[in-house]
Specification:
Layout lengths: L1 H4 L9 E5 L3 H13 L3 E5 L2 H8 L7 E5 L7 H12 L3 E5 L4 H9 L4 E4 L4 H5 L2 H9 L5 E4 L2 E4 L13 H6 L2 E3 L2 H14 L6 H8 L6 H23 L6 H18 L7 H16 L4 H7 L3 H8 L1
Helix pairs in contact: 9-10, 9-12, 10-11
The protein binds a DNA duplex (10 and 10 nucleotides) through β8 and α11.
DNA sequence: GATGGAATAT
DNA sequence: TATATTCCAT
């Protein structure tokens, strides 16, 4: 975004990558973009798209056909948005509610029905501005996931695949995401919670079973350590204490103003608030004990 | 083959 | 350390 702030000619020069298997569509897009002095790169195959997107920071916005041959476009869009932090606009002839919803769910910022309306192209830059306003030096915010940019920039081979894009990011378990995780775990019961079910209950776009499995593993280790400490009579180890405090503090600072849309989650937050008012110290213990006492008991036995 | 979980790598 | 990935058992 910085490149636009002091640029009086903006949005002229907006860098657009258009991906569609149909050359005619690409040419139409190019014509329209030219009228507004956008700089267009046309691309009519999945492999070209991957190749062009290998280098980051080359485009401000991506237009992509929802039905590219030889490509799982939704998966691609998901990975591309995570990695590139640019707005993605999906295009298709059909505009059923389900396809629009799916596009948005996978990270597209909007969905255009073909043939494209010139007005849409004209105001395309607004999506870039909106996207940029959520920009942060360290994080990209994608849906409800926060993804840390990968620091390493290893060389990549030419046959870049979606994995190449996907592998560069790592998920950060924000307090709110952890909260959702806890809700799911408690709903299932800690002893019965399995990654796949947790994932299903959390229902967070882009979150994968591997993410959950890894987090669950860490979470169990934390619980076990905490239980061991208690067993040995040391009230609370500095370590587990700071872990608890960290989550609690972040949850507090995060969300009590921005209530969740999701009613379940809202309820959980309210529950959290009440627990906090009553006994701040016992907050996490109460929360964990809810339905998971037996697991803790087993650990401590 | 799908899944879960521990071990291991990054 | 946090998270991702691999490896092995079920």
């Amino acid at each position: 975004m910085a490149r636009f702030v002091d640029n009086p000619s903006f949005p002229a020069g907006l860098r657009v990558i258009a991906i569609d298997h149909d050359i005619i569509v690409l040419n139409t897009i190019e014509d329209m973009c030219n009228r507004y002095h956008y700089q267009v790169t046309k691309c009519n195959s999945a492999s070209d798209a991957l190749y062009l997107l290998e280098r980051k920071d080359c485009y401000d916005v991506m237009l992509i056909d929802a039905h590219m041959p030889n490509m799982d476009v939704y998966d691609f869009v998901q990975n591309a948005t995570l990695q590139l932090n640019i707005p993605v606009i999906m295009m298709a002839v059909d505009s059923t509610k389900s396809s629009i919803m799916k596009s948005i769910e996978y990270g597209a910022c909007t969905y255009w029905t073909k043939p494209l309306a010139e007005e849409e192209v004209k105001i395309m830059w607004q999506h870039v501005v909106r996207n940029g306003s959520t920009e942060n030096k360290e994080y990209e915010i994608v849906g409800s996931l926060v993804v840390q940019e990968c620091r390493k920039r290893g060389r990549e081979d030419a046959n870049a695949s979606k994995e190449t894009l996907a592998k560069k990011t790592s998920l950060s378990w924000s307090p709110e995401l952890h909260q959702q995780f806890l809700c799911a775990v408690n709903q299932l019961g800690l002893d019965k919670a399995r990654p796949k079910m947790i994932l299903k209950i959390m229902d967070v776009p882009g979150l994968r079973v591997g993410h959950v499995a890894s987090h669950l593993q860490k979470y169990r280790i934390h619980l076990k350590r905490s239980a061991d400490e208690t067993k040995r009579g040391r009230t609370k180890s500095k370590w587990s204490d700071s872990f608890q405090a960290e989550w609690i503090d972040k949850v507090h600072s995060y969300d009590f103003q921005t209530k969740s849309i999701d009613q379940d989650r809202n309820d959980n937050l309210i529950q959290t608030e009440l627990a906090d008012q009553d006994r701040n110290d016992d907050f996490l213990a109460e929360w964990i004990d809810c339905g998971t006492g037996s697991y803790l008991h087993n650990l401590m036995a």
